[in-house]
Amino acid sequence: MRAFLGNPCRFDLPPCALTIGNFDGVHLGHQRMLARLRDEADARGLPTALLTFEPHPREFFAKGQPPARLAVLRDKLQFLAQGNLVDYVFIYRFNHAFSRMAAEDFVQQVLLQELKSRYLLIGDDFQFGADRKGNFELLQNCRDFVTEAMPSVLVAGERASSTLVRDRLAAGDLDSAARLLGRPYQVSGKVMHGQKLGRTIGFPTANVHLPHRRPPLEGVFVVQVDTPHGRLGGVASLGKNPTVTDSQHYKLEVHLFDYQGELYGQRLTVHFLHKLRDEARYDDLNELVAQIERDAASAKTYLNSLQRDQA
């Protein structure tokens, strides 16, 4: 897979079979769309391509209150590459000028001149261009490429969507979110220096950098973590740590079982398996430590049960 920032004309790429969207989280609906795109592209002798945007248009229009994002661009690209889901990813910067581009200009300039689209697969609710005036009918009237619409993908009777995944994560329903994603929800980031309070109370934690201000879930969770030393079980807190700070910034702190050592500067991927509880404020550190001990015991019980089920 190759990724391109901005106008790809300078790379002299061949015509492609294209789909468009943010593909936040790359859930099962996205995956099935890319599988269909691959089939159609193979039948036409074309490579597959995805046009996506940074920042997410909803983040751009939301100003100071952006919606929770499921995955950063790095993680999205990594998942697409690992699954061999698409050949090219075109990343266009979403700014004021781009948001005001007329739908007809988007078709001529971006889809035809820059991306050389010959086949286009879009979602059944796709709209584009200034004031969202572009739609399936406009695309279908363009004779320079074939346009088809992908019907909604149902998972357990529900339409797979990034919005539904966010809702389920916010509600703490990680099993439902995992069904929609086709895998447990995950967050990756580098381990940063923090207050180092955990090591003073017997529970050292890895402080994983969160690239976005607002995560899609909060609370205390059973996790499995991909580290340079393999996949390890643990318990994680994702929130504002109200007992020890009044900061409004979210933090992801992970206590790994059966591990001792430094992880500063290392990139970890945290897989969220089960929610134990919401965050809470405690009157003193002794109450907090007692609760962490209970959380760790519950997490170990869950992981042991999971291991038995998988054996």
Mean pLDDT: 91
N-end to C-end Cα span: 35 Å
Question: If strands are numbered along the chain, what order do they take across the biggest sheet?
Answer: 1-4-3-2-5-6
Biggest β-sheet: count, sense, barrel?
6 strands, parallel
Order of helices and strands: EEHEHHEHHEHEEEHHEHEEEEEH
Multimeric organization: single chain
Q: Give the number of domains.
A: 2
Strand percent estimate: 25-35%
Q: What is the CA-based Rg, rounded?
A: 22 Å
Write out the CATH superfamily name of the largest domain. Answer: HUPs
Please report the number of helical segments: 10
CATH architectural grouping of the largest domain: 3-Layer(aba) Sandwich
> What structural category do the secondary elements indicate?
alpha/beta
Helix coverage percent = 25-40%
Report on this model:
- It is a single chain.
- This protein is an alpha/beta fold and 311 residues long.
- The chain folds into two domains: 2-159, Rossmann fold, CATH 3.40.50; 185-310, Beta Barrel (Elongation Factor Tu (Ef-tu), domain 3).
- It is built from ten helices and 14 strands.
- The protein has helices spanning 28-44, 57-62, 73-82, 96-99, 103-114, 136-140, 162-170, 174-181, 197-200, 285-310, and strands at residues 2-5, 16-20, 48-54, 88-93, 117-123, 146-150, 154-155, 158-159, 185-192, 206-208, 219-227, 230-239, 251-256, 267-277.
- A six-stranded parallel β-sheet has the order 1-4-3-2-5-6, with helices on both faces. A six-stranded antiparallel beta barrel has the order 9-10-13-12-11-14. Strands 7-8 form a two-stranded antiparallel ribbon.
- Strand 2 (16-20), helix 1 (28-44) and strand 3 form a beta-alpha-beta unit.
- The longest helix has 26 residues, at 285-310.
- The model has no long low-confidence stretch (mean pLDDT 91).
